[in-house]
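Quarterly update from the structural biology core.
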Amino acid sequence: MELPCDDVCFRALSTRDCRFDGRLFVGVSTTGIYCRPICPARTPKRENCRFFPSAAAAQAAGFRPCLRCRPEISPDAAAWRGTSNTVSRALAFIAEGGCDSDAGVGALAERVGVGERQLRRLFDRHLGAPPVAVAQTRRILFAKQLIQDTDLAMAEIAEASGFGSVRRFNDVFRKLYGRTPRELRVRRSARHSGVTVKLGYRPPYDWDAMLEFLAARAIVGVEAVEAGHYARTIEIDGEAGSVAVSPGRGHLAATIRFPNVRAFLGIVARLRRLFDLDADVQAIGAHLSIDTALAPLVAKRPGLRAPGGWDGFELAVRAILGQQVSVAAARKLAGHLVNRTTPSLSAAVTGDERLTALFPTPQRLAAADLATFGMPRARRASLLALAHAVVDEPGLLEMAGSFEETILRLLALPGFGPWTAQYWALRFLRDSDAFPAADVALLRSPAVARRGQRPTPKALLARAEAWRPWRAYAAQHLWTHDMERARG
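Predicted structure, tokenized:
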């Protein structure tokens, strides 16, 4: 992600252009503070401004975060695939709590398939800061958000944001903000059920389309979509809880109920992936609109996002269940599978009487008896083969190496064809160029038909070349249009 020239950056700052929110930060030399381009404070003089591609770069240059525009809730444009696939994959690991020290950079580089020196060069080029500085800035900004938006105790916030001790947590904040964490907190009422955090994005955001997509696939007991809100159960390292998400003004509000605060950073990262909060939909839409058939679809849904997945194993199971059946049938099968394999949960755990079940873990599914499960024998075998493979190799579905290498690991499993693998990559790997060309809904779309004739998957792939590197978003526009046509 290259920064525009300083003149363009200053114009964006002067006009408080929300399109640049998350894509640049401005450090003001007279105050020592860095801000988002949409900061409501008076625009500083041009000669006092320095522009940075990331919050980490601004902090590394000695600036402290603004308390008015709150960089901690800005869209995470650095995680968008418009930068570099390698940087994006590294950021995905960092977002879930990886790379807490210089010693971790080597392991991070190995996971994304490059050398340590090359990874540092890529981070410096795209983000203006090394991996450790990016990880530390994320941790500090997440802690700052928890301080201001929740009533968690300071010790819990220090633990949730990955600080080794409360003393170190206090020292970092005193050095950066010139005050203690407690002095930064606005007085709040007594704790209510759950911890609510804001998840920023750059508008527009088509919440209705996102919710409709998730509702059509929601598994009874595991997920609930109602009155404009989404909720689901979650399980991490054997502990259960729930998340509930609703729209806000320029952000989504996520309420997390989970017993281990150390998991909060990773939960937020998963939610950003699930709701595709880091995409630059304006740039994507401008590119796709060059195609005259896609242009009216983009114009109708300018804020359309590509929904992600909560968990790689869960999404792989869902993809197998969805092979050659309708969305409704796949949803029904998933419900039956959940009922066979997982114990029920109480509302005391989830905070929601509708949320009564967990999606099966690989271990539970591997131990399940699916002999009488109502689907073809080959597909039952694929489910069990997937479960056993992940039990034997827990990192099998992690994004390690290149996208292509990850896809090849999936294709090596029984029952995984190109459609299943591409659909999984689109929704879990967040590969913006993944494209399941054999998908029935894509092939029947009037937007890709020629003289009323459906294209073959090969012909559709040829047509989709012009949509690269955002074929996943083209697919989402076509799927959404197909759902609208089905409703009549």
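Residues 287-304+432-488 form a domain with the Endonuclease Iii, domain 2 fold (CATH 1.10.1670).
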